[in-house]
Amino acid sequence: LQLSDLQWRYLTKGDAANYAQSLVSAMKKYPPSLYVAGPRRIALRDISEDDKKGETTVKLLDTSEPRSQFSSNAQREDARRAVTNYASKLKVNDVKVTVLSKTFEGKTSMSERWYGTKYNIKPIKQATLVRWSSPPLASGMGISLPRPNLFIPSESGLRLKGKTKAVAEKNKNMNGKTIDARKKTFEERMVAATPPALIRDDGRWTVHFKQDDVFGKPKAFVILQLSSKNTYDTPKKAVLGQLYEACVTDRLEEYAYDATLADLSYNVQVLPRGVRLSFGGYNDRLADFASYITGKLARDLDDVLPETDEEFERYKDNVVRSLRAFDVRQPYFHASNYATQTIQPIGFVYSNTELRDAIRDVTRQDLTIYSKNLWTSGKGEALLQGNLDEKEALDFVNDIDKTLRFNAISSDQYPPRLRALSLPSVPVSSYPTKITISEPNASNDNAATQVMLQCLGKSEKDHVIIEILSAIISEPFYEDLRTKQQLGYIVSSGVRALEETRILAFIVQSSNVPAEKLTAAVMKFLNAFRSDYLEKLSEGDVLTSVKGLLDKRLEPDRMLAAEVTRNWGEIVSGRMQFDRIQRESAALLDIKKDDVLKFWDENFVGSLPSDIGGRRLLVSEVVPKVGPASTKAPPKSMGYPTGKKNGSASSNGALVLGIDDVEQFRKDRTPST
Description:
By secondary structure, the chain is α+β, with helices and mostly antiparallel strands. The chain contains 21 helices and 17 strands. The strands form 4 sheets. Strands 5, 6, 7, 8, 9, 10 and 11 form a 7-stranded mixed β-sheet that branches. A hairpin with a 2-residue loop joins β8 and β9. α10 runs antiparallel to α12, α15 (460-484) packs across α17 and α17 runs antiparallel to α19 (580-589). The longest helix has 25 residues, at 460-484. The two termini are 57 Å apart.
């Protein structure tokens, strides 16, 4: 009852379509007064007895008042009877059991109509049904009713503080009904939200804090990162980090289950720049929950690591399976994956092959040593945001600090921040750099290509123009290659961000057309895009794209977590541009057609000198082993690692790489630290 009411009282706005569907369904089951609350709140009945008449009156409650307990023993008994009645209708004779396993392959005799899934149907043995009908007592099986949930916040713990309380009061109209105070005018949305304040910076911890002044909920989010160079600097440490995450999540599941029910959450991630802990939920019990989890991770290693070699092998097998699953991903994913590697420095990302090779010889002892060293030293960074005051935020970090007890590192030991690698600049008359990849799934007959245009411009204007270009180009690109030429059933384009750079990527996948022809079609479209589309645009067409991007960019956050995530992105990257949305929106307002044409000329045609601009393109092609789209399998190396820096001796003089050349290609462009 308490958990249900808690969720109802602090329900967060969701998707409008799903909400409409839930209302339609509720209209069939509930009276009008419960159309909204019915599916989202445990229904209780008001049971009152008239002593004079000796009658009992029962009616469904539709009050919105908070309920932390049953109003009477009669009401509790009524709810208990309803649950018992429902459970009594769950009979073994009506059960349907579904079992999925690869061991059934070749042993089935039926086929599903639409997707051809093979299956069998057979009755459950009578002896099994009899056994299920007379199970042993729950107490004999170690099963009991749940213990009291210690993470449910108290009523006093749900009180709002300072600005959070003020905004909650502001969000109520004269009738006491909640209104949406986030419905702002354009001018109001162009004013940046209050940024987090720096409340501690002593060489050991850098702590940012912001009390919620928008959402008015008794919730908070905390992100803590222990930054270090030693968590991810080799493929072996990267897979040990994956193993550590898997073990922690599984081993702490029983304890965290009650917290999850009370809307508390945690997450641990081993990243290229250190290890990160995130906590969120109702702030009343958040500090206690975080202290316990942190203690298990940093001190009580025996509670989070496998106890036997057999248990370790199970965790290892799960990670190995997830790495092997790379092979059966779609070819366009493989094209994108290898292309993305080329613009990330060594130590920030490893190839699937490197990780699979690394995990092969990893032992339980390796994991134990790695886990012991994970929290021993580093630089602490933190963001605390929500229904907290500054003192509570500092106390929170102090408690975590006492638990971790790590050795602070000096500034020269801080891990480097991610900086995108620039692709080679090539003139428009030359063919772009290319990676050729043999599709790892031998049974997949699809070819794929991705053409990636890299923009190194770091200004707000650069960032918004490439988004305008993406909005303009997506429809004609799909219309030409998919609808008219019918080259592939997957045709898409879009912008991706990596640090302060932007990438405009074009993807085509086909089961009939070889990868080289797909690439040729994409390049032909791009070479003609200026004359066929951009030059024909009116200022009104550009303004339409600008307005669409403005509306999307200035859409208010629906949840506190979204604002926290954005603020943390600025902190962990070191950029600290908390008003980025407003600055980019202001840049959007000044964009004209000539700006779009100039950007295209500078970045695609390559009208700027190569040191500051130029045409930076990368083509990644995936070649299948079978089917009409297959061609000769490309070699894994074109000789690049052995000093053949010009790649293959292709007729067009392009630099062509195999997948084994990618690492050296990255090393040659990774700045020394």
